[in-house]
């Protein structure tokens, strides 16, 4: 499963540098974009940098990006819109007892 995941790189829009001010700079070297760390004055290690993190917290311990989360949403057929709780207090009675103190 981990072989399918992509490596987390500094060029990902979710990748962030924790150093303040931001130590991650994108520069051009020999016609190519390079992620440069101004903190150590060297190329950024990406997922292996101690200051790098994923904004969505989707980076694994092995430096791979898990991608987007998918949530299963219950369909409308499963939910009963007409359900009435038998233990619920009627609104007119709830209004009357709302302001009263219990002694």
Structural features, described:
- Strand 3 and strand 4 form a beta hairpin.
- This protein is mainly beta.
- The termini are far apart.
- It has a domain at about 1-70.
- The protein contains one helix and seven strands; from the N terminus they run βββββββα.
- The mean pLDDT is about 75.
- The protein has one helix at about 90-100, and strands at about 5, 15, 25-30, 30-35, 40-45, 50-55, 65.
Count up the helices: 1
Looking at the chains present, what oligomeric state does this protein adopt? single chain
Structural class: mainly beta
Order of strands in the sheet with the most strands? 3-4-5
Distance between the termini: 62 Å
Structural Rg: 26 Å
**Arithmetic mean pLDDT:** 76
The fraction of residues in strands falls at 15-25%
Helix share bin: under 10%
Shape: elongated
Question: Tell me about the biggest sheet?
Answer: 3 strands, antiparallel
Low-confidence spans: none
Number of strands: 7
Order of helices and strands: EEEEEEEH
Write the layout of secondary structure elements.
Blueprint: E1 6-7, E2 15-17, E3 24-29, E4 32-37, E5 42-43, E6 52-54, E7 64-65, H1 91-98
Antiparallel strand pairs: 1-7, 2-6, 3-4, 4-5
Question: Could you give a quick summary of the protein structure above?
Answer:
The protein is mostly beta strands. The chain has one helix and seven strands, in the order βββββββα. Helix content is 8%, strand content 23%.
């Amino acid at each position: 499963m981990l072989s399918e995941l992509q490596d987390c790189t500094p060029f990902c829009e979710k990748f962030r540098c924790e150093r303040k001010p931001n130590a991650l700079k994108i520069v051009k070297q020999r016609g190519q974009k390079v992620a440069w760390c101004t903190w150590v004055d060297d190329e950024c290690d990406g997922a292996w940098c101690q200051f790098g993190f994923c904004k969505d917290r989707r980076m694994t311990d092995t430096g791979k990006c898990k991608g987007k989360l998918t949530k299963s949403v219950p369909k409308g057929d499963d939910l009963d819109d007409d359900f009435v709780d038998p233990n619920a207090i009627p609104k007119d009675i709830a209004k009357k007892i709302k302001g009263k103190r219990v002694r």
